[in-house]
Amino acid sequence: MQLSLNSESRLPLVDQIVNGIRNLIDDRVLRPAMRMPPIRSFAETHEVSRFTAVEAYDRLVALGYLQSRRGSGFYVTARNDPSLPVK
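User: That's the sequence. What structure does it adopt?
Assistant: Structure tokens below.
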């Protein structure tokens, strides 16, 4: 998973990460039950602090995009698709 982050943007890195991951989930690039990269790995790959990665993942959990599983990591949650008919 590669996100395009701009350290010179007015938008904080945490918000850029949250928006980027939300878009990947909404566009179904990241599918339900997929395991997210560990925080340390994500931070190193995207050259951000671990604190920034933790904050972004925590916000995504609060928004219902990710689920935290103790000892296992973070996983993409199933999202309700408003374009699908309700049964």
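The chain has a mean pLDDT of 92.
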